[in-house]
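In this supplementary section we document a worked example of the pipeline. Step one takes a protein sequence of length 252 as its only input; no multiple sequence alignment statistics are reported here. Step two produces a three-dimensional model, which step three serialises into structure tokens for compact storage. The input and output of this example are shown verbatim.
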Amino acid sequence: MEVVIGLGLVGILGYTLWNEVSSREEDLPTISTRSHIRDYYLTGGVYEEVKDVISSGRRLLEIHLYADENGKPIVAKKPLNLSYDYAYDYWTFDSVCVDLIQAWENTEDPFILSIVPHSVNNVTLNKAAECLKTTVRRHLVKGVEPSTPLDDLKNRLILVSDNVKGSELGELINLFWSESKLRRILYSEGMFPRDRNELIKYNRSAITLVVPDTTFGKIAFEPKDAFANGCQWVILQNSSGPGFVEKPASLQ
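The serialised model returned by step three reads:
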């Protein structure tokens, strides 16, 4: 009889401890299971309105930045000849920044803005920085790395660029494609790299942005070919995309 009572007390005590531990676990914050930002595929647009890119599900836009006759930053609506110093047909950079606010209406995922400067000086770049700090200030972020967890970048604007150092805009850029953490390559390089193994290895710790080249529109481009080489960010004009898609484990 005493044995039965003893076993009963042990059972009650065990249940009490289990219940207490379970209650504590329910109170603990949920640990993020989303991978690093380098471990996700993403499609983007170029020479498109921000609203169109966002509504299509894409989370990246590359803009080609010029200056108008007053030195204000503007964004070209179409590819220009290399001899052009300014864009005839454009959006104002201010309007692009305002439209970026829409990016977080239906999702918390970050948005990536790739800025390609053309014939602009620090005055124009500083004006672009001031616009960003005025319109999307609360979405700006510092300290972004390819290894940063995606969940740590909710509602954030990630800025990538090059040739803007020394300006106020340069101080806002998260990743420069002239450094070791990010590459910006052409379609042909993304599809048929000279050293595929090296590119795959690079993309395990860094990020590659694949953009159109002079053959854009003249040859078939398959984003899956670039994705198969581990390239994470691919620009496809007038397309649609599901946002961030996790890479296969074999390429992480």
